[in-house]
Write a structure and sequence with these properties.
Layout (H helix, E strand, L loop, with lengths): L3 H6 L8 E6 L7 E7 L6 E6 L7 H21 L11 E2 L8 E2 L5 E6 L4 E2 L7 H17 L17 H14 L9 H8 L2 H12 L6 E3 L8 E4 L4 E4 L6 E3 L2 H11 L17 H15 L5 H28 L11 H18 L1 H15 L1
Antiparallel strand pairs: 1-2, 2-3, 3-6, 4-6, 5-6, 7-9, 8-11, 9-10
Helix pairs in contact: 3-7, 3-8, 4-9, 7-8, 7-9, 8-11, 9-10, 9-11
Bound molecules: 2-acetamido-2-deoxy-1-O-phosphono-alpha-D-glucopyranose (GN1) and magnesium ion (MG).
2-acetamido-2-deoxy-1-O-phosphono-alpha-D-glucopyranose (GN1) binds next to loops.
Length: 365
């Protein structure tokens, strides 16, 4: 008898019979599985997309199709292997990009890329440099992409929008936790003005808007066994935004000496060595295309995205843990504290971060 997952998989245009389906990965949002097939047929990634978070899954899948097809053409033109250096969306048997099951859940399939490595933290400057190069290439591949993209999560990295949600969450106090969090709430409020001032530069067009990934933490990048970047995965949030977000979000994960949810705050901080390496890789691909206003705010973007992450984890804790998957009741608060320690470390090292960006940009311009 077919399992539920096998029944779901049977609606997709797979090249071979399904052997088994196992759970995969550590994503906080979707449920991810690997579909093993018999014989020479490739394996596949099957995902149940989180429809509470992504309000229009078909539109999101259409974004992913457009963007991956564009990247595949660019990879092929450069003599690369589009099946390894790009994601491939596998349609349903009736040609749709996702399958809607009888419970109202959306499922999507992509080709599984074999023989790869994934990381939660950069373990060497070489890896950080390669990661920077990979996101730099991703942005460069999409620099001439002109098709419209749906906004899959409205105001995703827009801090004005996040503060509106934040004010509402404090007012609602859904889980009755606001009273216990004066210190943590103070961390957010103390930085409201400087974060909004940065976002005004994007709103006013001083910092340009481009096609960006928007979720560039290290485990959303696939490396090959030699440490080269193959491609960016988890393209659910590909949208038009500032490319600074992709830099900042990557720094948040590549350059953290601890874990995103480390309970031991003494382990958490910004590694300037990893920062230098990531910046070098990224700017080796992007220095000549970025506007001066973008270069000038690269270092700040790491503070911006890390601040946003503190706000989002704390807001989810205040809301009663409705957005991120948690493994234990205080998980979102532990994440908040660990990301705040990282933010403080970035603030302490900010002058050096600016100097590194400036020197590296000069090297590649
Ligand atoms: C989520 O889906 P995943 O686990 O790659 C989140 C990111 C956060 C990240 C925190 C759609 O990423 O924005 O930065 O967790 N994705 C969405 O680790 O909210
Ligand atoms: Mg992910």
């Amino acid at each position: 008898m077919k399992t539920h997952l096998q029944e779901i998989a049977s609606h997709f245009a797979l090249a071979g019979p399904v052997l088994k389906i196992d759970s995969l990965g550590e994503g906080f949002i979707n449920d991810t599985f690997i579909v093993r097939t018999a014989g020479d047929a490739p394996d596949y990634i099957l995902q149940r997309k989180n429809k509470t978070i992504f309000r229009d899954v078909p539109a999101m899948m259409e974004n992913i199709r457009k963007v991956t097809e564009h990247i595949r053409r660019r990879v092929a033109a450069a003599g690369g292997d589009p099946e390894r250096e790009a994601m491939t969306v596998v349609p349903t048997l009736d040609g749709k990009l996702c399958y809607l099951d009888s419970d109202g859940e959306y499922w999507a399939v992509t080709l599984f890329i074999d023989d790869t490595a994934a990381y939660n933290r950069a373990d060497s400057p070489e890896l950080a440099r390669k990661g920077g190069e990979g996101i730099g290439k991703f942005q460069a591949q999409l620099a001439d992409f002109t098709e419209p993209l749906a906004e899959t999560i409205p105001g995703f990295h827009n801090i004005r929008h996040r503060f509106a949600q934040w004010d509402e969450a404090l007012r609602r106090d859904a889980a009755g936790r606001v009273g216990e969090l004066p210190e943590e709430i103070g961390w957010i409020e103390a930085r409201r003005a400087e974060m909004l001032a940065f976002w005004s530069l994007v709103e006013d067009g001083i910092i340009p808007t481009r096609v960006t990934h928007n979720d560039t933490k290290i485990n959303n990048i696939l490396f090959d066994r030699q440490g080269e970047v193959l491609c960016a995965i988890d393209l659910d949030t590909v949208m038009n935004s500032t490319s600074l977000n992709d830099f900042g979000d990557a720094i948040r994960s590549y350059c953290n000496t601890g874990d995103e949810d480390d309970r031991d705050l003494a382990r958490v901080g910004l590694s300037l060595e990893m920062f230098r390496a990531y910046t070098d890789g990224y700017l080796s691909q992007r220095a000549r295309q970025l506007a001066p206003s973008e270069i000038d705010h690269l270092a700040f973007s790491a503070r911006y995205i890390t601040f946003e992450q503190v706000l989002r984890f704390l807001m989810d804790y205040i809301d009663g843990d409705t957005y991120y998957k948690i493994r234990y009741p205080e998980h979102n608060l532990v994440r908040t504290h660990a990301q705040y320690r990282l933010l403080e470390s970035m603030e302490e090292h900010y002058p050096e971060m600016c100097r590194i960006v400036c020197d590296t940009a000069a090297k590649y311009r």
